[in-house]
Structures are given as structure tokens and as C-alpha cells.
Predict the 3D structure of the following.
Amino acid sequence: MGKKVWMEWSLPPDLLPQISGLAEYVDDGDMEKLRGSTVISGIRRYYDGEFMDRVGPELVQIAKPGIGVDNIDLEAATSRGILVCNTPDAPSESTAEHAVALLMAVAKRVIVGDMQLRGAAEIGREAMLGTELMGSSLGIVGFGRIGRRVAEMTALGIRMKVTIYDPLLPGDFELPEGVSRTDDLDAIFAENQFVTLHTPLLPETRHLANERRLRLMKRGGYLINASRGGVLDEAALIKVLQEGHLAGAALDVFDPEPPLADNPLLKMKNVVVTPHIASYTDAGMAAMQAGTVENIVNVLKGERPRWIANPEAWPGRTERASG
């Protein structure tokens, strides 16, 4: 049986020859064509052990564009010798810029101002009173690629007072000017007017921003989340917003996703929402697509990909792909 790449998204024409010369290429997501694939690639679907077994023993790699792999059962993949590959560098800049855009939009009341000018006469001028960012404090949870760029833009560009929390960061890591760190996660919430979340969704980070921590925040504070919806307890956020404890929130991600139509967050004028588009820019998409193709080509040639989310699975079933 020849090698096959099954995808739920289509490659741009300039990248297609890299794969079509090595394997059969299926890009319509047709489940009838799934069986016997060497590589599968998708974004939204959940890939568990049952799905992997449905593909068959020829499956060598699950290639994911972007950073997050929380829609893939890593343990199931690893136990089967299946490599899970992502592109963690590709969307970092786009996502960081979007997080800062959300922060500024909610602080400056951009959305309500837009609504008022477009005819929402019930919005009074008092609802458009914004918060000045220069000199205010920002707490960043997670100091990976995205968190670092957010820190640089806000500390060096806007001149906010930035404090970061990341238990995995080496103690001697050199921080940008104007950025300090704390080992106390609660302090991030209690001591900053703005808090932005940049951590992967793991069992230990689910609902990291829970009701207790949201209530630690200063009255009139703001919460921004462009990481994963499950990192934030949405029910708790709704409660503290309805009570007026927080001044606003800005979210690019939800739990579940997409949010249900009756989600109260969608009706709050002090909440800025976008449909998980932080990485969806021209440069971000191009980098994710190119990185995914690079990972796939590596596996089809029997080579080690640059980015493996479950490195303990290497070399796994790669000999089957290189034959």
C-alpha cells in the first residue's frame, strides 16, 4: 500500500508539490478515504485512540497546524508509536498581537464606541469611559513564545508595569526591561489591574483562572484570554462581571467552542469577543501551513521532524513511512 496524506484542510498550491511527489494527497476530509493513511492533519476534530485505530496501523503522524494539541490524545498516540507534530513558532507573533489588541479594545471601550456610532443610542457616554494603560499593571500567566512577545509590547511599547508567572521558566532567564516575575500565581491576579492568560490547556491548568482567583483581582480589573477556553472558568467570569467586580474581559477562546448562542458573555457590552482568530493572519497562516508541510515531509522521508509534541514516541512507526 502506498503512502497517503489525509487532510481536513487544503494546502496552498505552492506547497502541494512537496507532498504530492511523496504520497497520495486527500484534502476533502472524506472519512471514507481515511483508512490506511500515513499522515492525518486537522484542526477542530478530536483525535482519540479509537480514531487512530480507525485509520489503521499505517498511521505514523498526526500533523497539527499551530501550537495547541489539546484536541489529540497524546497518551494514546504515544502508546501506538504515532508522532504528534505541531508548529509552535508559526502563530506566536499573530497571537501575541491579537492578545494586545484585545487588551486595548476592552480598556478603550472600542466596541461600545463603535456600537454607539452605529445606532445603539442607549449606550451613554459614561459607558465609553476607558482605562489608560500607560503605568497600569499587567500580569501575564505563561511566559512562552506568546507571553514573551506580549510582555515586550506592553512593557516596552505601552510602558505598562508587567509581572509574569511561569513555573517552568529558568530562574536565571533574562527578562525584558520593565518586566518582573513572581512565583506566586495568586499574586498575579491580586496585584494587577489586567491579567492575560498564555498557558496551554493541561489537566493542571484547566480552570486555572477560577472564581477564587478572579475575586482576588482588584475591583475594576480586566481579564484577557487568547490561550484556550478551558484555562478559564467561564461561569465564574460571568458571575464576577455581572456583579460588577471586574470592569471587563476580552476573549478569543471559549469552552465549549464555539460558544453557545445563549452564552451571557456574548451579550455583555463590557466584553470583547473574537471567534478564535488570534493566529488567523496572512503571515500566521502561511507559517503554520509551511511548518505543517515540513513536518509531514520529514516523516514521509523517515526523518525526525523539528517539532514533536510527544518526543518519547520517536521513532515510532516512521520506518513504515520511509519504506
Summary: The chain has a mean pLDDT of 95. The longest strand covers residues 246-251. Residues 11 and 289 are 7 Å apart (CA to CA). DSSP finds eleven helices and twelve strands in the chain.
